[in-house]
Amino acid sequence: MFAHNGVIILFTLLIALMASIMPMPLSADAFRPDWVLIVLIYWCMALPGRVNIITAWVMGFLLDVLLGSVLGVHAAAMAISIYIIVVNHQKIRNFSILQQALITGVLAALYHLVVFWLQRFLIDIIFLTSYLYPVVTTIILWPWVFYLLRKVRRNFSIKSVSYTHLRAHETRHD
Tens digits of per-residue pLDDT, 46-64? Predict the structure, then answer.
């Protein structure tokens, strides 16, 4: 059914990409949350065997293309941020939702600082405090995104891919 519901995960990531490029008023655009990062953090905590650093790099690369930035900047920043989640997913899963929101905020800050440092090195931009405004909205939105994606995961019975399950499934159809 839906190739073990990987289509649903992909769909949520595509919605996050669309939300990242959706037009907003200039006054609100500085506070645009890191939709792709939030969704990736959730899926990496819930299913680290299915959504991982490679997924984060691909999504970051797509974000580079969509935003018209130097290729690889968002991809590298996304991969670094998600690496921390993947390595620590079992610990972070057990934290309260508020603690997870703070960790998400720290990772969003790291993401923006890595993007800034890479852009500073490549195209010589200056640091503005407005670069970190999305961290605030990312922290605020984490609980809602977490509960929404958890509901989606439960409704579609999205589970981690078990290799023994796949082998049993393959042998039945041979």
Answer: 999 999 999 999 999 999 9
Give the predicted TM-score (pTM) of the model. Answer: 0.89
Which burial class, exposed, middle or buried, applies to 50 when counting CB atoms under 10 A from its CB (0-12, 13-18, 19+)? middle
SS (H, E, C) the chain: CHHHHHHHHHHHHHHHHHHHHCCCCHHHHCCCCCHHHHHHHHHHHHCCCCCCHHHHHHHHHHHHHHHCCCCCHHHHHHHHHHHHHHHHHHHHHCCCHHHHHHHHHHHHHHHHHHHHHHHHHHHCCCCCHHHHHHHHHHHHHHHHHHHHHHHHHHHCCCCCCCHHHHHHHHHHHC
